[in-house]
Amino acid sequence: MSVEIQSYELALPPIVRFGSGRLVEIAELVAMVGRRVWLIGGRRSLLASASRETIESSLASAGIDSRIVAVSEGEPTVAQVAAGLAGLADEDQAAAVIVAVGGGSAIDLAKAVAALATNPPPGGLGRQRPADLEQHVVDHLEGVGRGLPIRHAPIPLVAVPTTAGTGAEATRNAVISCPERGFKKSLRSPLMVPRAALIDPDLTLGCDPSTTAAAGLDCITQLVESFICRFKKPLPRALVLEALPRAVHALPRLLHDPGDAAARSALSHAAFVSGVALTNSGLGMAHGVAAALGIECGTAHGVACALMLPLALRVNASAAEADFAVLERSIDPLAPSDDAAAARSFVGRVEAICSAAGTPRRLSEVGLKRARIGWLAENSGGASMRGNPVELGVEQLQGLLAEIY
Questions:
Q1: Which member of 61, 224, 297, 342 has the greatest number of CB atoms within 10 A?
Q2: Is the separation of the CB atoms in 120 and 154 below 8 Å?
Q3: Where are any strands of DSSP class E within 170-240?
Q4: Is the pLDDT of residue 2 over 80?
Q5: What is the Cα–Cα distance from 405 to 400, expressed in whole angstroms?
Q6: pTM above 0.85, yes or no
């Protein structure tokens, strides 16, 4: 075993509180970084949820004012971020804290608003037309705008996930789409890692089975891809070896029994770890295609990752054989000692979980037209695809995608 360690960076929320019933501690967390709260969340995860009353009463009891400033409507768009910024144009940001309650979409919306509110266009937010604010958002996105950086620290953000999948509570980016222009890109900065994450597995009880399945497979995809990617780092890999066995055992149990509290807790923990792992290492083919699929077909991110994961495993089976074997042995101590055999067992194990989850298995099932396979291949790039162990050209990727049409 080599003792050499190459240079690396590690970014994660400086405060993490994990455990069932810990939502009541939200006021204590907020008080560490501010004195008033702007809430951002989803319609079901915040507006129509019992957690809203818990959050608002906890804050009120601590003398902390709170109000809802934005509501997530599906995966965040440039227009939604711009609208959120417009709503804060005349607000005093001093001592403000944004609390994001919801799945990855709500947390990403909140991260984008928090970051761009403190990095406004010249003249400030209040003097901008809606189109100008939208352009300001685009100018900070990777690959489509001017590449403007986040220079000033965002409004402090406390992330409260209500799904167990994306790990957005631990990441340094927000994925923003623009249906009109046909892109889904990241707003990214080390400054965007949430100031705190409050992870209460009880909040995922409101997820229906399809959401649990898609989010859980997103989590597993992130754990696997961060472990095998070209930019893999030692600490994230060590965390994956602890969390992945929990995830692959917990997800089937939850799909069979949604009331399994231990499985729900294990999956929430694994989702957080997947966020830490991806933000400090990288991802791969499944996520690279998933982003383009979301733009073309409106496919939810978790569903797209679940669809792509089995193909990504097969594509990388040879290049990542030793890593797959390590992952299989972390799950099953009795796994074969031969790497090839253990790797095959791992691929088969994950494919079986995908089958049991009932998520779409073919591109045609999510509405992709056969004539658009070429477009999908051409637009499946970005940082995720660069991290894939096997380098894939457009024509090669197009052929692979045709196999699962």
A1: 224
A2: no
A3: 173-178, 183-188, 196-199
A4: no
A5: 9
A6: yes
